[in-house]
Amino acid sequence: MEHTWRCAITVADLGEFGIIARIVGRLPQSPTVLLGPGDDAAVLAAPGGRVVVTTDLLLEGRHFRRDWSSAYDIGRKAAAQNLADIAAMGASPTALFVGLGLPGDLPVEWLDGLTDGFRDECAPVGASVAGGDISRSEQVVLGVTALGTLDDRPPVTRAGARPGDVVALTGRVGHAAAGLALLQAGLPEAFPELSGAHRRPMPPYARGPEAAALGATAMADVSDGLVQDVGHIASSSGVLVEMDADAFPVPASLAAAGERLGEDPLEWMLTGGDDHALVAAFPSTAVLPSEWLIVGRVVEGEGVQVRGHAGAQGGWDHFR
Amino acid sequence: MEHTWRCAITVADLGEFGIIARIVGRLPQSPTVLLGPGDDAAVLAAPGGRVVVTTDLLLEGRHFRRDWSSAYDIGRKAAAQNLADIAAMGASPTALFVGLGLPGDLPVEWLDGLTDGFRDECAPVGASVAGGDISRSEQVVLGVTALGTLDDRPPVTRAGARPGDVVALTGRVGHAAAGLALLQAGLPEAFPELSGAHRRPMPPYARGPEAAALGATAMADVSDGLVQDVGHIASSSGVLVEMDADAFPVPASLAAAGERLGEDPLEWMLTGGDDHALVAAFPSTAVLPSEWLIVGRVVEGEGVQVRGHAGAQGGWDHFR
User: Which residues are in the PurM-like N-terminal domain (chains A, B) (predicted)?
Assistant: First the structure.
């Protein structure tokens, strides 16, 4: 006679509708959600008669690792990278929709952590997870869609930068890249602030609508690397962006991690993605709050130049 | 000296930004799309100040097979199942967002077919693919989000059916299930209409807003199986739905395929998903166009009963 010992309840034990009930039970809904989870589709308020939408696909092993990040941090990060795209339009996030692919043997506790991570990244910005979909999958798959509202503002695209504008940055750059390098080197505990930055970005959400109000002519979130994302602004706007390596003060933690790993911390700052900073062009007359660091200027021409730094031509391409 | 022969251009040859450019170049945008692909997020018009949203995750091997369906049909089906969820709220679809996970060795022609399938399923309903995301993946992964507009109508949820209402169906049921059974039996050519129904559903999109205008009290799309989806209406509304097996005329193709495979065609019609018919409750006074087939009635109680049929308690659970 064989005894089966179960150490943890799995998502397969719950079944599809049990999983949905469990997730929905942990998710408060924001006032924007007129009809939440449980029907064929959700209904959201769209003030001003427009809605901002972005989507990302996150795959286990490629975008996150369960042995490197907790379920809670994976949820926060998946939410953050989509909410940051909304902020980068000058908009305020309102809701997330999450398609979940889950292995049957996934412990329910892991699913709870993921759900709570989504919930807690959404709550401070006034958003909530308003719907989703569940499938069985070999590995964890997250299809995340974020919606947001511009109220009555025009969107800030990548295409409006003009010669004479200044280029300014808000939020961290290089931290997540350094954290990833430390995790890859097996040294996550050496600089917990940096490995933590890889696991859970802290996008400056409120700075997006602030930039719009300050008259930003173009904006992007830094997800592929600063030089590459500024390059998107440059190509969309038909301009050249000149940045100065001297404009970037290297934080002590990045300098120390760079020394430990034999890497150039400025390279992390200029080419590392995943911190989800915001970079924007402003008229030179704009008076920017201290959270915005001026790192360059817009001139006639095309592309991006970084003076005083030999590298920094790279960035992230998912297929290279 | 080694020679490498390449028979087809792959998505890895194009790279991430080449893939995006190729996809976007094949996608016309509908007037609802105020800002389309190419920025951090898209901006859509949301007439009436509300937006309807649904999302699905589709995984190769679980939701589709590349050896059973063409890329074009996979694109159409992935679009259709999301657009049908919008119609089931009484809304009109406006846009799709597609997160794509693609193997590096995928031929570009396959990607083109997929893109064209999405495009062609969207165009007749006035929607377009307004944004997306690309990642490398071991197998094809599709994270699809659909948006729609109610204009000034209230949404038709699953929760409003009342005793005395009639229950009516529009669109095909059982065809996709029969087609899947034929594919699994290695007989796709025996009934091409049915294997075709599995590959490409034909949801009756326009019937969704029509049902809302006719005063539908509750509605759902049939994706898990008619009995199960009517069960969602019953439980959300707190009522019992009685259906009659006699109400369902069995099409000749289903009868013939059932005989060939030794299956009960009525079982396919009552429990098979993936045709994306619409089922709705209406006041008994509603005058329904001939496309709506009355299949049951709403009474006090709970659950679903099918008179004259012994089976039909099943349906689809992604984790069973």
Answer: 38-149
Listed residues A92, A115, A149: the one ending a domain: A149
In a domain, residue A3? The reply is no
Same domain, B137 and B175: no
H, E, C per residue of chain B = CCCCCCCCCEHHHHHHHHHHHHHHHCCCCCCCEEECCCCCCEEEECHHHEEEEEEEEEEECCCECCCCCCHHHHHHHHHHHHHHHHHCCCCEEEEEEEEEEECCCCEHHHHHHHHHHHHHHHHHHCCEEEEEEEEECCCCEEEEEEEEECCCCCCCCCCCCCCCCEEEEECCCCHHHHHHHHHHCCCCCCCHHHHHHHHCCCCCCCHHHHHHHCCCCEEEEECCCHHHHHHHHHHHHCCEEEEEHHHCCCCHHHHHHHHHHCCCHHHHHHHCCCCCEEEEEECCCCCCCCCCEEEEEEECCCEEEEECCCCCCCCCCCCC
> Which 97-136 residues of chain A touch chain B by CB within 8 A?
97-101, 104, 130-136
> CATH number, domain at B273?
3.90.650.10
Tell whether residue B133 is among the known ligand binding residues: yes
Give the ipTM. 0.92
CB contact under 8 A, B56 and A319: no
| A184 and A65 together in one domain | no
Q: Are A40 and B89 inside 8 Å of each other by CB?
A: yes
Pair of tokens at residue A143: 């299809």
pLDDT along chain B (320 residues), means of 10: 65 92 94 94 95 97 94 97 98 97 96 98 96 96 97 95 98 96 93 94 97 98 95 97 94 97 96 95 97 97 90 53
Contact state of A19 with B319 under an 8 Å Cβ cutoff: yes
A48 interface with B at CB cutoff 8 Å: yes
Domain count, chain A: 2
Domain containing B54 — which CATH number?
A: 3.30.1330.10
Backbone angles phi, psi at B54, to 5 degrees: -145, 155
Residues of the domain holding B114: 11-149
**Chain A residue with minimal CA distance to B155?**
A43
pLDDT per position as a tens digit, A247-279 = 999 999 999 999 999 999 999 999 998 999 999
Q: Is B48 on the interface with A (CB under 8 A)?
A: yes
How far is the alpha carbon of A260 from chain B, nearest alpha carbon, in Å?
Answer: 31
Within this chain, do residues A173 and A276 fall inside the same structural domain, yes or no? yes
Contact A47 B52 (CB under 8 A): no
Residues A138-180 pLDDT 10s? 999 999 999 999 988 999 999 999 999 999 999 999 999 999 9
